[in-house]
Write a structure and sequence with these properties.
The structure is a homodimer of 87-residue chains. In chain A, β1 and β2 form a beta hairpin. Chain A has a single domain, classed as Winged helix-like DNA-binding domain superfamily/Winged helix DNA-binding domain (Arc Repressor Mutant, subunit A). Chain A has 87 residues and is mostly helical. Chain A is built from three helices and two strands; from the N terminus they run αααββ. The structure holds a DNA duplex (21 and 21 nucleotides).
Chain lengths: 87, 87
DNA sequence: CTTTATTTGTCCGTATGTATG
DNA sequence: ACATACATACGGACAAATAAA
């Protein structure tokens, strides 16, 4: 008896490989999420969200986004955000 | 004679401690105002108002608000504003 | 119903300073 | 010297939600 429930808050933090730039590793993760369907078409990918999730600065996030834009994986509209592109 | 009245407009500007980020100092002020009751529950705290009062850019104000939101001190709704939360 | 104003959300570009590899 | 990365800060633009006229 005296059963109880422990609410454990696990903050999932990305493990970075110190031998490669963070922005390339984050880009890899996003690519994988798009490929797997975890991020469906038109899903919003916002800068602040990425900053918080990966615990990096804006400049780093923007590097990720620039790369994904050039690959055509995301489409960005000012005032709206960045979204997973249709393939 | 020839008495007259001078209307002197004194613009009260916050004095910032250059050794600490502006946004933390502004957040301190807001927290204090909420605690003291100067900002009662449901009082609107708008971004433009804070910009003008403290003479800072919007991004700085938004950082303050993000912090206060995470602390549960204010509740924000797009199109309406940020309000002092019920405790 | 339409228009306007207010307010927040998001993105863009830039800049300074610090620190590390 | 250079690239990466963080933190702070400014100012601007456009989009979307809400409320008021």
């Amino acid at each position: 008896m005296f059963g109880y429930t422990v609410m454990r808050t696990v903050t999932q933090v990305m493990e970075f490989d110190p031998t490669r730039p963070k922005w390339t590793q984050i880009a890899d993760v996003i690519r994988q999420r798009i490929a797997s369907g975890e991020y469906p078409v038109n899903r919003l990918i916002s800068e602040t969200q990425l900053e918080q999730e990966f615990g990096v600065a804006r400049g780093t996030v923007r590097k990720v986004k620039t790369a994904l834009q050039e690959e055509g994986l995301i489409v960005t509209t000012r005032g709206m955000g960045s979204f997973v592109a249709k393939r």
